[in-house]
Each structure stands twice: as structure tokens, then as C-alpha cells.
């Protein structure tokens, strides 16, 4: 039996089949290369963006540090003006530090850079606001200082004027005191000049008889009453009118004879300022001429023997004296 070669199929040849497979593989390689290339480009872009974001974060951090440090330095330079401003500065420093820490925390996360930028702008605005507030306070404080200085100057002026017035018042008071003293001396001189002097002070012991008549006696046991007489001197300084004379009788023991029921009392000695006990007072109508005045002291008590002294006062001044003796 004779073998005949099998017939070849009609269509593609083996070479063409290989070419087709190679084309498919090539296309797949191109696709893979494209995908890899795209991925590489994307990663490169992501890395570039990451580097940019990191650099921006560093830039923002540096800007943050500069703004914060400048603001703190400015605030520190304003301290010491007064307690109110110092307290406000400490509050502002605390608020700035809190804002700085907040922004620093945001800068650590690249996804929060936008928020960090916004907060940095907010910080800048906050610093500007603080600066404006401090300028206003400085201006107010300067005005207050000027006002205080003006008040201090006015106070010094008023104090100087007051001291001048006090000096003038002291001089016026001194002059017034001198004038009062002179007036007092003048008044005393006038008063002394108006004292009516008396002379011929005479005292006689009297015995009252049964018929009512009296007779002079020198023995104490026989004397019932004392009759005191004196003569007023002429004094043209005194206006005519009622004058009062105070008679003081002092017994041998140095005691003033006095009984309130008989008109005894006290008169001030204008020269010494002391009170003087008087025996009896007599009111007379004075006519600027010599006139004899008599008064009777009848105490209804026994008299003792010895030397008696008599003083006569007018206007508080001693105007005459006398003495007598009872045996």
C-alpha cells in the first residue's frame, strides 16, 4: 500500500502565527511600560509635592517663629510702664504662645497646611491687633502722665501759694496779736486811768447806846460797829455816774471780815487775776469831784483787839488803803 503525504491546511503559515503572538506580546509590553511610566511619573509628582509641602511647612514654621519672637520682644519692651499694661502684656503673651503651639501642631501634618496658613494669618492679625491696642494704651498712658505732671505742677503751685498765704496769715495773726496786745494794754491803761483813787481812809469803832445814838470807842469790847470813811479824788477821765467801791477789812489775824447777809462777796484783782474777798460794797454817784463816802459795818459779833487793815477797790484795782487799832 502506498502512503501518500497528507495535504497541508490552507491559510496561515507558522511564521505568520509567530508574528501574531509577538505582536500581542509587544502590545502588552507597551501597555505595561506605559503603566509603569505613568506610575513613575505620578510617584515623582507626589514626591515633588511632598518635598514642596515639607519646604512650605519649614518656611511657615520659620515665619511663625519670627512673628512670635518679634511680637514677644515688642511686648517685653513695653513692660514696666504701669501695672495695668504689664498685666495685659502677660495675658497677650499667654494667648500668643497658645496660638503658636496650635500652628506648630498643624504644621506637623501635611494635610493640615491649609489650616496652618489660615491660623498663621490669624496670628498675624492678632499680633497687629495687640500692637494697635498697646499703642492706644501707650498714648493714653502718655496723656495720663502729662495730666499727672500738670496736676503735680498745679499742686506745687497751689502749695507754694498756700505757703505764701500761710506766711501772710502768720504775719497778719502776729500783727493782729500785737494789735490786740496793744489794745489790751491801752484798754488796761484806760481802765487803770479810770480808777478813782481814794484818800483819808479812816475807820472808827462805834458804840450804839440804848437811845440809838452812837459814840466813838477805841476798846474792842465796847465797839458794836465800824464806821469806814474815805474821800474820792477828782478824775476827769471818768464819766460822771454810778461808781462802786469795795471795802475790805482785815482783822488782826489776817482774816477778812465778811458776812454774805451783810453784802460781802468777791471781787477780781485785775492786776493779779486773783479773787479778793471784800467786806462790804458801796455804790455812789460820782461827779468827778472830791467826795467823802462813809459806810457802816455792823456784824453783831464781838470785835477783837489789835491792828486792822482796810483796802478799798474800784474797778478791780486797789485805789486806797488805811489801818486802825482797837485796844
Give structural notes:
The chain is α+β, with helices and mostly antiparallel strands and 327 residues long. It has two domains: 17-193, no CATH class; 198-326, Immunoglobulin-like, CATH 2.60.40.10. It is 52% helix and 23% strand. It has three helices and ten strands; from the N terminus they run αααββββββββββ. It has helices at 14-77, 83-107, 113-193; strands at residues 198-208, 214-217, 225-232, 241-250, 265-268, 275-278, 280-286, 291-297, 306-314, 317-326. Strands 2-1-3-8 form a four-stranded antiparallel sheet, with no helix packed on it. Strands 7-4-9-10 form a four-stranded antiparallel sheet, with no helix packed on it. Strand 9 (306-314) and strand 10 form a beta hairpin. Helix 1 (14-77) packs antiparallel against helix 2 and helix 1 (14-77) packs parallel to helix 3 (113-193). The longest helix has 81 residues, at 113-193. The radius of gyration is 66 Å and the shape is rod-shaped. The N and C termini lie far apart (227 Å).
User: How many DSSP-defined strands?
Assistant: 10
**How can the largest sheet be summarized?**
4 strands, antiparallel
- Please tally the helical runs, counting DSSP H or I stretches of 4 or more residues: 3
Q: Return the structural class.
A: alpha+beta
* Average of pLDDT: 82
Can you write the helix and strand succession as a string? HHHEEEEEEEEEE
Which word captures the global form? Answer: rod-shaped
Amino acid at each position: 500500500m502506498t502512503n501518500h503525504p497528507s495535504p497541508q491546511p490552507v491559510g496561515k503559515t507558522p511564521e505568520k502565527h509567530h508574528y501574531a503572538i509577538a505582536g500581542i506580546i509587544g502590545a502588552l509590553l507597551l501597555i505595561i511600560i506605559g503603566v509603569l511610566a505613568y506610575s513613575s511619573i505620578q510617584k515623582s509628582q507626589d514626591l515633588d509635592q511632598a518635598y514642596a509641602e515639607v519646604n512650605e511647612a519649614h518656611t511657615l514654621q520659620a515665619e511663625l517663629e519670627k512673628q512670635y519672637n518679634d511680637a514677644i520682644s515688642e511686648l517685653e519692651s513695653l513692660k514696666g510702664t504701669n501695672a495695668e499694661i504689664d498685666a495685659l502684656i502677660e495675658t497677650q503673651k499667654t494667648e500668643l504662645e497658645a496660638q503658636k503651639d496650635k500652628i506648630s501642631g498643624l504644621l506637623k501634618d501635611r494635610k493640615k497646611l491649609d489650616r496652618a496658613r489660615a491660623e498663621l494669618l490669624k496670628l498675624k492679625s492678632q499680633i497687629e491687633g495687640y500692637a494697635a491696642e498697646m499703642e492706644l494704651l501707650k498714648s493714653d498712658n502718655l496723656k495720663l502722665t502729662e495730666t499727672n505732671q500738670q496736676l503735680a505742677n498745679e499742686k506745687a503751685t497751689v502749695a507754694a501759694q498756700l505757703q505764701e498765704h500761710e506766711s501772710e496769715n502768720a504775719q497778719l495773726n502776729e500783727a493782729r496779736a500785737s494789735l490786740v496786745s496793744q489794745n489790751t494794754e491801752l484798754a488796761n491803761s484806760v481802765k487803770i486811768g479810770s480808777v478813782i483813787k481814794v484818800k483819808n481812809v479812816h475807820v472808827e469803832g462805834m458804840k450804839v447806846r440804848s437811845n440809838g445814838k452812837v459814840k466813838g470807842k477805841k476798846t474792842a469790847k465796847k465797839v458794836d460797829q465800824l464806821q469806814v470813811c474815805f474821800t474820792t479824788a477828782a478824775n476827769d477821765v471818768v464819766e460822771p455816774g454810778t461808781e462802786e467801791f469795795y471795802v475790805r477789812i482785815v482783822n488782826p489775824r489776817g482774816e477778812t471780815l465778811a458776812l454774805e447777809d451783810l453784802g460781802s462777796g468777791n471781787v477780781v484783782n485785775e492786776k493779779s487775776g486773783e479773787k479778793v474777798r471784800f467786806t462790804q460794797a458801796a455804790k455812789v454817784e460820782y461827779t468827778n469831784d472830791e467826795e467823802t463816802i462813809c459806810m457802816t459795818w455792823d456784824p453783831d459779833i464781838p470785835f477783837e483787839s489789835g491792828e486792822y487793815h482796810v483796802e478799798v477797790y474800784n474797778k478791780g484795782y486797789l485805789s486806797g488803803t488805811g489801818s486802825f487799832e482797837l485796844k
